[in-house]
């Protein structure tokens, strides 16, 4: 007879491991099954985010930022360096050390919270049975509740075969051994911009091909235009409405054929990064008779409470609808466990923040101006440039702006969009305001410490009613 658990979680990424810990904290007998393997062919918790996504990319972004500051920006502070250089192996090694520390930390959290963990592939069978396969063989367990949190995998494109030597996915992009003279990137989304920025800062000539005709279509276009100008100024060569038709490795280089304005062009790169998005990972996850249904997009079909078509089988994170964001997955995992425990699990998808960790950072929450126009919602705008913020000037980071959107009649904050230093942190007070159905005036009446970057949010809130002090209204 198979061992029984209260909760079996398939997937150990931000959605899965958080759900497992929360379930165990609630007194439920919990098992987490995860099959992720590192480049060294070792099992590791944390999923894409901790191993080959959010965390390692931020480590490389931080290292490359320090190098660029040394070589291009510290002179304004009166600081000079002689023969500054970056050792890529050390940069990659630091990244690996951080990843190992955090993934090992999850194992310790499992142990502390009494979460059982089995490394291997989990497949949902009928009657909430889970078949677990690894090098030691197979076993079957059962759960009163099953939480599917298998995450996502990179999307591939025709005629571009990833080998992670010359043609790279996000994993390969994190492990380049030396600075490529020329780096091509397919996709001007989060991964493309962040990884393109890393290697540009340390010396690569970076070209980004984007099929869409608008830059960062999910972002407020007023902010996106400001960001596009800055990235171009930095040296990222971004081509919109450009379609990569093929990529082939020839003589230790990648020959890329692309189409723009109806004409075909050929360009050669040392490395090519494929960053065209991700899709739900369901391969080997579901047996034919388990009863769980998929959507037309290949995601697990769930209702607003993350329930699948099978009783007591839930799905969270990248494998279901909604933005593929680690924090969204974690919150869904927590909410599902709260529902299992008979509590009120709640997520407001309108207040999930987005962040792109370029330099400066991009962060936003809520509606864009374009969405408000399309919906016919009356609104008013408040903006404030970081160039007029004392702390930003003192930091030598005056680029960017804050843009707030509030309802024209009620003044409720409907959207917040930030391009500038520390945007990933600044967006949080806007999220809190929106969660409490707060108004732009509420933000404007909060005393912000001086001098801080957060004063830019305060001044933008004041600007909504044309009361900003440090800019012309």
TrEMBL record:
GO terms for biological process: 2-oxoglutarate metabolic process. It catalyses: N(6)-[(R)-dihydrolipoyl]-L-lysyl-[protein] + NAD(+) = N(6)-[(R)-lipoyl]-L-lysyl-[protein] + NADH + H(+). PROSITE patterns: PYRIDINE_REDOX_1. Disulfide bonds join 49-54. Keywords: Cytoplasm, Disulfide bond, FAD, Flavoprotein, NAD, Nucleotide-binding, Oxidoreductase, Redox-active center. The active site is at 450 (proton acceptor). One of its GO terms (cellular component) is cytoplasm. NAD(+) binds at residues 187-194, 210, 277. FAD binds at residues 58, 122, 318, 324-327. Its cofactor is FAD. Residues 5-333 form the FAD/NAD(P)-binding domain. GO terms for molecular function: dihydrolipoyl dehydrogenase (NADH) activity; flavin adenine dinucleotide binding. Residues 352-460 form the Pyridine nucleotide-disulphide oxidoreductase dimerisation domain. It is an enzyme of class 1 (oxidoreductase). Its EC number is 1.8.1.4. Binds 1 FAD per subunit. It is found in: Cytoplasm. The active site is a redox-active disulfide bond. Belongs to the class-I pyridine nucleotide-disulfide oxidoreductase family. This is Dihydrolipoyl dehydrogenase. It comes from Marinicella pacifica. The gene is ldp.
